[in-house]
Amino acid sequence: MRVLITGGSGFVGQRLCRQLVEQGHEVQVVSRSPHRVRDRLPGNCDIRDSAQAFIESPPDALVNLAGEPIAAKRWSDEQKARLINSRVAATEQLVALCEQLKANGQPLPKVMVSGSAMGYYGDQGKRVVTEKTMPNDEFAHRLCKQWETAARPIEAMGVRLAIVRIGLVLEAGGGSLEKMLPPFKWGLGGRFGSGEQFMPWIHRDDLVAAILFLINQEGLSGAFNGSAPHPVTNATFTKTLASHLNRPAIFPVPAFVLKAGFGEMSRLLLTGADMRPARLEEAGFSFQYPTLDKALEAIL
Length: 300
Known about the structure:
The protein has helices at about 10-20, 35, 75-105, 140-150, 175-185, 205-215, 235-245, 255-260, 265-270, 280, 290-300, and strands at about 1-5, 25-30, 45-50, 60-65, 110-115, 130, 160-165, 170, 200, 200-205, 220-225, 230-235, 275. It is α/β, with parallel strands linked by helices.
């Protein structure tokens, strides 16, 4: 199978590319700077600067993971626009590729697995969140909604679309733990605000396995929550992480400090959703790391 990936040089994309290559698949990667990312990916990956550059070798499947990191900068109006545009533009590029393939009479991909995020639901308090839960209207939701909407036209061309609303991705060497580990290792970790907000999370290996599962299961389409079946509150996450590092976690960060430092972006730290992977589990997907203890034991 030939798989075209946007965001292939990212934290999740790198592992996905390696898994696909190990399984004998042909991997195509879209990157604005192919020469800069080549050393991050398996040597036989075909890396080009646009999806349209692959028009002569049509992919069998698409995986859309591209997008500027949501927590990299304070959310000014300009930064919000960049966050949305980086996701929508990459998605529209894949849709345009399919339109061009169709116009040329070339075979279309059979499936597109397109990224989204837990932010789709916005702040949900303590209620259990499945794919049927109505979202809370705030910036994170609007960003994810536009991202998902940009992928929808592909369905009208007969391409199966599966959308993955991804939780916090855990693994060594990047993702959500990269900035969290140093203060915890120094014994300076603590909960954010009240600590009652939920943190849906997923081990990177489980997320990659879920993406492959959605590619291969022909009957699956629509939205899927890409998170482990046992989300935890921020307070529990904090205690569990500190315990695995044999360190205390006695330095909570007050909500007002986060709001002063990060502005609206502080909602990423102070709100959350008790998000469950209902549709993945119903479809028979099995998690290698269903609990935070098991995930952190493997990582640390």
